[in-house]
Every structure is written in structure tokens, then in C-alpha cells.
Design a protein that fits this description.
The complex is a heterodimer of chains A (about 290) and B (about 325).
Chain A: H1 3-34, H2 41-59, H3 63-86, H4 94-116, E1 131-134, E2 137-140, H5 141-163, H6 165-175, H7 177-182, H8 187-212, H9 219-234, H10 239-259, H11 265-279
Antiparallel strand pairs in A: 1-2
Helix pairs in contact in A: 1-5, 1-8, 1-9, 1-10, 2-3, 2-4, 2-8, 2-9, 3-8, 5-6, 5-8, 6-8, 9-10, 9-11, 10-11
Chain B: H1 3-22, H2 25-50, H3 59-76, H4 80-104, H5 109-128, E1 139-140, H6 158-181, H7 183-193, H8 195-200, H9 205-231, E2 233-234, H10 236-239, H11 242-255, H12 262-283, H13 291-306, H14 311-318
Antiparallel strand pairs in B: 1-2
Helix pairs in contact in B: 2-6, 2-9, 2-11, 2-12, 3-4, 3-5, 3-9, 4-9, 6-7, 6-9, 7-9, 11-12, 12-13
Chain lengths: ~290, ~325
């Protein structure tokens, strides 16, 4: 197999992986703070992808501009979801939370199916077909742009958690729920804020993903599983871990697709997940609890 | 159980036994599906409801059992009764392996649930690439819809499948009722409520969690073999899919986790609701794919928000079946 083909596949895998990473980052932030596993995560991603497709079809809005309204709408959606539906469930057993979010996911996927039908949708922009060549290595413009925005969004999120007072307050809620309450933080409001931020991350990732793949409603559950795999591999609750996990999974998918069979690609992801769970259950970058 | 409950249970048993006499084939297939879901729900409930170990990958055991028994029949003509034991053995070993890995390495809660999903998905993709079972194209068992009953090969009219499933479901109910009152049942409940306290009291939590997983896997394998011989076709995409696992656990959660009748009530309610919605949509010529699942999702949401402990505990109180 020619080396430049392998290098090209690796490059594409890493760049896609960064977008995966941003998607998983949303899940990781939500779990790290609210301690609820968002089983509707991939479905939210798919909704964001459809929103982008719709904005493109209606106003020829470039996905990079669509990011702003879609992310804002998802922040509100996430905030409302947590404040209205999930907050009463945070003290309930895990299987109750699971069913709640499965129900939300089921509604999301099937509303998409009813409205848009099962056919794949996509957007066409000029830069999707263009690329930069660095010797024999090709960098797809769309992939590079998407990965850059994913990195920038992640960096903004890191900065928010590290340098702002609200970010500090959210970290306090994550570290010690009771302690945060004692010092007067409105924990449930911060939970809603966190869910909104996580949702906005997914929205940005969804806007970018539309440039890389065609969207169907059935992508939802697959993305949910993918996001789980990534955050467990990287470490649930660890922000850099989510990005690292995304890159690893993007890479392993690309290489498995090249060397074995495209249909077997997620088998490697799940294999990796099982290995990580057994050998390092806190994830590659996770802290031991 | 008080006297009223005993009378109601006897009436229900009589009704179910007499059902084929007045129900058509459609109704019988719905009833068979309800019993099937009640049965797997019961099996899942042993692990989650009794021992508190959340499995989101029970389709794994259904699928492996269906493929083992179906494959033996397809390739070597070995009937389901012999196949059942091998399928059960395979599932128990699989459950033991997953349980051993998870519990030895201290994986619990959400992580354990995700591990069970991972194993089910891993196996699904594996079977997609397994030539022996037909890969993604599926495996088809020879359909011989006879009027006479051929119990040795588990072939016969719908009534036979109905009564078989009724017997399995009744057996599962009896087994669970016994388990819940056995030493194991009390150990499990102690582990479910507080594992550390259970351990401090001298319960070997590792061993009893393993027992729960193995019993649950063994019970589920029976459902898998039934699935193979009832539907006669097995596709990895279909049988191992995570939506199958979710379907298995919806019944007991809606009905009431950890209760004996919860899985039965939940399975009946969800199946009747699903089929009712289908009929209603067909009546109004509104058969757009997805509409049924939207309704399903909304009902599910309503039940979990307003009846978080399931329907059965409230229903039982209302009917005066418990104090």
C-alpha cells in the first residue's frame, strides 16, 4: 500500500476526529458537571445537522455562518431541557435518567424522520471540493476549516471554565455539589447553563459535520454511541481527554476503513472502549475518583 | 399475596390459557409478543431490579442464543431443544465473562451500562462479518408452517408458539418469585440498596452479582432461541441493535423495576399501545414512518416523569393487592 495514501487517510482521520472530539466534549462537560449521561447526544447532533442543512437550503447560509444561530438556539434548547425536564431527575436512579433521555432521543429522531424523510441530505459549498497539497499530502479545505473551528470552540470553552467567574462556579458545582450550594450558588441554574453549553458544543460540531458527511435521521443513535466511546476512552469529565479520544477514534476509524473494511470500523472503536474500560476505567486522561 | 391477588391471578391465568379459543391469528401474535417481552423483561429484571446492575446490552444474549440454536439447526439440523442448552451455555459463559471483567475491575453504574452496550455492539459488528451465519444478509431457517405440531423441531401453528411462550413467561414469573424470597434474592436486594454495607455484612458481593448476571443471561437465552424459531430469520443489524436492548428494558422500567409483575404490565401496556397507535394511524391514513415512535416517545416521557417508580406499584395499591 503506498505510503502517501496512508498518510492522507491519517490526516483526514485526525481532522474528522477533532470534530468528533468537539461533539464528545459536549457530552463530557454535561456528565462532568450534572452527572447525567446524555443519551440523546447524537440525536441532538443530528438535529443540529438538519438545522444547518435547512438554513443552507433556505438562505444559502454557509455552515460557518449557520454556526451562530444554530449554537445559540441549541444553548437555549439545552438550558430549557435541563431546567424543565432533567433537573427533577438528578437525584433519581440512573435507569430513570436513562429512560428520560432515551424518550427525548426517540422523539428527536422520529420527528426528523417524519419531517425530512429517511433520505440523506447534504450541503454543497465550493470549498468542499478544494484542497491544499503539501507534496503528495492533500488537506481537504472543508476538513481543515471544520477541524480549526472545532479546536477554536474547544479553546474558548477551556478559557471560559478557567478564567471566568461563571466557569469557576460551574467547576465548583461539579467538584462538590453540596459545598457549592452551601456557599450560595444556585446549583440547578448552573446545571442548566452547563447543559446549554454542552448543547452548543454539539451544535457547532453538527454544523461542521454537515460538511463532511450526508445526514440521515438514523445517524443519531450511531453518534450517541460514538460520543460515549470517545469520552470513555478519553476520560469522562476530562475536557482534553474528549479531544484526544475524538482524534484517536477518528484515526482508528479511518485506518480500520483503509486496512480492513469500512463496515468494521466501529468494531475497533468498541474494542478500544472495552480495553480502556477494563484497563483504565477512568479513561486515558481522566482522574481517579 | 392476599386472597384478592390470588383470585385475580387465577382469572388472568384462565383467560390467557383460553385466549387461542377466541382470538384470531393477529391477536395471538400480539399476545405472543407481549409474553415474549414480559419474559425478557423478567430476565433483565433479575440483574437490574433485584441485584441493581444496569445492563443496556441484553440484546447480546438474545442474539447469541438465536444464532447458536439457529446455526445448529441451519447447518446440522440439530433441533432447538438440544440447541437451547448450548445456547444457554454460551450465554452464561458470555455473561460470566462480562461480569467477571466488570466486577473484578470494579466497574459499576454508568460505566457498567456502557460496557454492556460496547459488548453488544462489538458482537453485532462481529456477526456482520461472520460468514458462517450469513453475515449482514442474515440467516433464514427453513419455514415449514405445518398444521400439526412438531414439538421436536419446534414447528407448528401460532397456538403452539403462544402456549410455549406462555409457559416460559409463567415459568419465569415463578422462578423470579422464588428467587426474590430465596437467600440469593435477599443478598441481591442488599447489594442493590447499598453494596458497601452488604459487603460489610459479609456478603460476597462479587459472587452474587456474578450469579445474577448468569441467571439473567440464561433466562434471556431461552427468549433468543424462541425468537430464532418463531421469526425464522436473524439479522445482526436487527437482533443485536441497541434499540432491541432498549425495547427489552422499557417494559420492566415502565411497569416497575424490581417488582414481579412490573415487566408483565409494562410489556402489555407498551405493546398494546404501540399496536394501537399503528392501527389508529392506519385508520386515519397517516402512516408516515416515525409518527408511531414519536407518540411512543411522548408516552414514555410522560410515564417516567409522572410515575417514576413504574405503573405496577401504584396499580397494585389501587386494586388493593397490597397493604
Amino acid at each position: 500500500m503506498p505510503l502517501d495514501l496512508i498518510v492522507n487517510v491519517v490526516v483526514a482521520g485526525v481532522l474528522t476526529g477533532l470534530v468528533y472530539g468537539l461533539m464528545a466534549l459536549g457530552l463530557s462537560v454535561i456528565f462532568g458537571v450534572v452527572r447525567v449521561v446524555n443519551f440523546a447526544h447524537g440525536e441532538m447532533m443530528t438535529v443540529a445537522m438538519y438545522a444547518t442543512v435547512l438554513l443552507f437550503a433556505a438562505f444559502r447560509l454557509d455552515p460557518f455562518l449557520a454556526v451562530v444561530p444554530v449554537a445559540a438556539a441549541f444553548f437555549v434548547l439545552g438550558y430549557a431541557l435541563q431546567a424543565g425536564l432533567i433537573n427533577p431527575f438528578i437525584t433519581r436512579p440512573e435507569h430513570s435518567q436513562f429512560i428520560l433521555l432515551v424518550a427525548v432521543a426517540m422523539i428527536m429522531v422520529n420527528v426528523l424522520l417524519v419531517v425530512f424523510g429517511p433520505d440523506a441530505r447534504s450541503v454543497q459549498v465550493d470549498y468542499q471540493l478544494e484542497s491544499w497539497a503539501l507534496g503528495p499530502i492533500l488537506f481537504d479545505k472543508a476538513r481543515v476549516y471544520a477541524a480549526s473551528l472545532a479546536l477554536a470552540t474547544s479553546a474558548a470553552l477551556f478559557a471560559f471554565f478557567r478564567f471566568t467567574l461563571t466557569g469557576k462556579a460551574i467547576r465548583a458545582c461539579a467538584d462538590n455539589w453540596l459545598g457549592a450550594k452551601v456557599v450560595g450558588l444556585d446549583v440547578k441554574r448552573y446545571y442548566a447553563l452547563t447543559f446549554g453549553l454542552g448543547s452548543a458544543c454539539v451544535a457547532v460540531a453538527g454544523c461542521m459535520m454537515v460538511l463532511l458527511v450526508d445526514v440521515t435521521p438514523q445517524l443519531g443513535p450511531a453518534y450517541t454511541l460514538l460520543a460515549f466511546v470517545i469520552v470513555i476512552v478519553g476520560g469522562l469529565g476530562s475536557l482534553t481527554g474528549a479531544l484526544l479520544g475524538g482524534v484517536l477514534i477518528g484515526l482508528s476509524e479511518a485506518l480500520a476503513g483503509l486496512f480492513i473494511a469500512p463496515s468494521a470500523k466501529s468494531m475497533f472503536s468498541f474494542g478500544l472502549l472495552i480495553l480502556v474500560l477494563l484497563l483504565r476505567p477512568q479513561g486515558l486522561l481522566g482522574k481517579k475518583s | 399475596m392476599n386472597r384478592r391477588a390470588a383470585v385475580l391471578l387465577a382469572i388472568l391465568a384462565l383467560l390467557l390459557a383460553a385466549l387461542p379459543a377466541f382470538a384470531g391469528n393477529y391477536l395471538l401474535s400480539v399476545a405472543t409478543l407481549i409474553l415474549y417481552l414480559a419474559f425478557v423483561g423478567q430476565a433483565w429484571n433479575v440483574m437490574m431490579g433485584f441485584a441493581g446492575q444496569l445492563s443496556l446490552g441484553h440484546s447480546l444474549y438474545v442474539g447469541v442464543a438465536a444464532y447458536v440454536a439457529g446455526g445448529l439447526f441451519f447447518h446440522f439440523g440439530i433441533g432447538p431443544w438440544a440447541g437451547l442448552w448450548l445456547a444457554m451455555l454460551a450465554c452464561v459463559l458470555l455473561g460470566a465473562a462480562i461480569g467477571f471483567l466488570a466486577f473484578r475491575f470494579g466497574i459499576s453504574g454508568v460505566y457498567f451500562a456502557l460496557l454492556t452496550i460496547a459488548f453488544a455492539e462489538f458482537t453485532r459488528i462481529g456477526f456482520d462479518h461472520l460468514r458462517w451465519t450469513g453475515g449482514p444478509g442474515g440467516m433464514f431457517l427453513k419455514v415449514a408452517q405445518r398444521d400439526q405440531i412438531d414439538l421436536a423441531h419446534f414447528r407448528g401453528p401460532p397456538e403452539m408458539y403462544y402456549y410455549a411462550m406462555l409457559a416460559f413467561a409463567a415459568g419465569a414469573l415463578a422462578l423470579c418469585a422464588w428467587l426474590l424470597r430465596s437467600r440469593a434474592g435477599y443478598y441481591w436486594q442488599a447489594i442493590r440498596e447499598n453494596e458497601e454495607a452488604a459487603q460489610a455484612l459479609g456478603i460476597n458481593t462479587f459472587r452474587w452479582k456474578m450469579v445474577a448476571v448468569m441467571i439473567s443471561a440464561a433466562m434471556t437465552s431461552v427468549a433468543g432461541v424462541f425468537f430464532a424459531f418463531y421469526y425464522n430469520n436473524i439479522f445482526p443489524e436487527q437482533i443485536f441493535h441497541i434499540s432491541r436492548s432498549i425495547e427489552i428494558i422499557l417494559g420492566p422500567i415502565i411497569g416497575g423495576v424490581g417488582t414481579l409483575f412490573g415487566p408483565i404490565v409494562g410489556a402489555a401496556l407498551l405493546t398494546l399501545l404501540g399496536d394501537g397507535i399503528t392501527e389508529l394511524l392506519a385508520y386515519y391514513d397517516w402512516e408516515i414512518p416515525g409518527v408511531k415512535q414519536v407518540f411512543y416517545g411522548v408516552v414514555l416521557l410522560a410515564v417516567i416523569v409522572f410515575r417514576p417508580n413504574g405503573i405496577w406499584p401504584a396499580l397494585a395499591r389501587r386494586l388493593g393487592l397490597c397493604k
